[in-house]
Amino acid sequence: METRAFQKIHTRITNITKATCSLKATGVGYEELAIVHGKLAQVVKIKGDTITLQIFGGTEGIPTNGEVIFSGKPPSLKVSDALAGRFFDSFGNPIDGGPEVEGEEREIGGPTVNPVRRKQPSELIATGIAGIDLNNTLVSGQKIPFFADPDQPYNQVMAMVALRAKADKIILGGMGLANDDYLFFKNVFDNAGALDHIVSFVNSTEDPPVERLLVPDMALTAAEYFAVDKNQKVLVLLTDMTLFADALAIVSNRMDQIPSKDSMPGSLYSDLAKIYEKAVQFPEGGSITIVAVTTLSGGDITHAVPDNTGYITEGQLFLRKDTDIGKVIVDPFRSLSRLKQLVIGKKTREDHPSVMNAAIRLFADASNAKIKQENGFDLTDYDERTLGFAKEYSRELLAIDVNIEIDKMLDTGWQLFNTYFTKAEVAIKEDLVSKYWPEEEGLEERRKKEPSEAKA
C-alpha cells in the first residue's frame, strides 16, 4: 500500500483481539485500508472516534504502541483492457510475474445495479456441457451455484466452463485454492490459448483466510468494467463460496459477534446477496452472469451456506458420481435453472423443451426400474430398455466431460429415443417427431421385422 505525505501515524492501540485492534482516530472511513505494525488491515467498525481494524494476517506480534497508518481509501482495482490474461491476488496485485496494470482506479464492493437499468435476461450462455446446456440452460445475467461435495472435481468443471463458455470475458475468483488448483487453472488456460479473455483473482491456502473476503468484489469490479464500459458478455466463476463464508465466520467470531446457524454470522444472507445480486443484463448488451461453487459438508443441503444461497440464486446445479458409468454427471433431478424457459426453444431449436422433458421423464422411469431391481422384483421389457437408455443418456449427455453444441445434444437425444423406445413411448408432439425422428433403423423398425409370435 502506498503511503502519502503528511499521513498521520497513530501509535496508541487501545484494544487487541485475535483478529482486530481498536484505537482512537478521526477522519477515517468505513472499509478504509491501513497498515498496522507492518500488517495490512481494514476498518470494519466505527463507533464515535473509536476505530476497529480487522488485521488480515492476524494480530500476533502487534504491540499496543504499534504504528497505524491509514491509507485514506478503501480497497480498489485499476481497470483496463490490460487485465485480460492476468492472475492477481486478493488485493489486485499481479502474481504471474507480469507488470502492474495501468488504468482507472475504482473502489471495489460498490452497490448493485439499479433495477431501472436492468433488462430481463434473454441471451443464451452456452457452456458445451450437456448437463447444463440441455437440461439447465444458463441465461446471461443469471446467478446460479454448483452444489458439490468437496471430493468432486468442481474446479475442473469450472475450468471447462471457462474454456467452453460463449462469453467475451471470463473472470475467475478463486478462494482458498490449493497451490495445485492454482497451477491447474493457470496451465489449462495457458495450454488452451484462452488466457487473452480470462482474468483471475486468486487467494491460495497459504494466504490469510480473511483475504478471501476481497476476492468476489475484485472479480466483480473487473466484470463491471467489461460489462458496463465495454458492453461485453461477462461470465464470473467463483470457487468456493463455502470457504468465503468460513472466512466471514472467522472474522465475526474473532469480533465476538453472536453466531447464527452453523456458526455463521447473522449477516450471511446479505453478505452473499451483495455478491450474487451483481448479476445483471444491461439494455445496451453487456451482462454479468455468475456461476459459483458451494461445497457441501457431507452432502448437507440444509447447511446455512447452501440454504441461504438457494434463496438468492436462480436455481442450482448438482454434481454427483454416476456409479453406472463411473463418471461425474450434472444431476438432472436435483439441478434447476429457473430462467431456462426464457431461452429454450426461443434461442435454441424448437424441439429443445420437448427433448429435455421426454429424456428426464424416461430417466426417472429408469430410476424406478433400478429400485425394483434392487428390491428383487422382475423387470418388464420397458424397464430393461429404460435402464439401457439411462446408461447411454448419462454417458453421452449428462457426463461433465461431454463437450458438444446444443444442436448435437438434441440430435443425440433423438438417437437415444429411436434406439430404446417407440414414438408413442417418447410422447413428443407428432409435428416434432416427423421432423426430427432419425431415419435410421430403431426399435420400431426392429420390432416390425420380428416374427408375430416373438412379439406376443
Please provide a brief summary of the model:
This protein is α/β, with parallel strands linked by helices. The protein has helices at 130-133, 154-164, 179-191, 215-229, 241-254, 268-276, 304-312, 352-374, 381-398, 406-420, 423-426, 430-436, 443-449, 452-455, and strands spanning 9-10, 13-16, 20-24, 33-36, 39-47, 50-55, 68-70, 76-79, 87-88, 104-107, 124-125, 138-139, 143-148, 169-177, 198-204, 233-239, 280-281, 287-295, 315-322, 327-330, 336-337. Helix 8 (352-374) crosses helix 10 (406-420).
What are the main properties of this structure?
single chain, 456 residues, alpha/beta, Elongation Factor Tu (Ef-tu), domain 3, Rossmann fold, 3 domains, 7-stranded antiparallel beta sheet, disordered N terminus
Quote the average pLDDT: 90
β-sheet strand percentage: 15-25%
Structural class: alpha/beta
Total number of strands: 21
The total number of structural domains is 3
Please tally the helical runs, counting DSSP H or I stretches of 4 or more residues: 14
Largest beta-sheet characterization: 10 strands, mixed
End-to-end separation in angstroms reads: 83 Å
- Gross geometry: elongated
- Low-pLDDT stretches are 2-6
Q: What is the CATH architecture assignment of the largest domain?
A: 3-Layer(aba) Sandwich
CATH class of the largest domain: Alpha Beta
Determine Rg (CA atoms, Å). Answer: 26 Å
Q: What is the helical fraction, as a range of percent? A: 25-40%
CATH fold node name of the largest domain = Rossmann fold
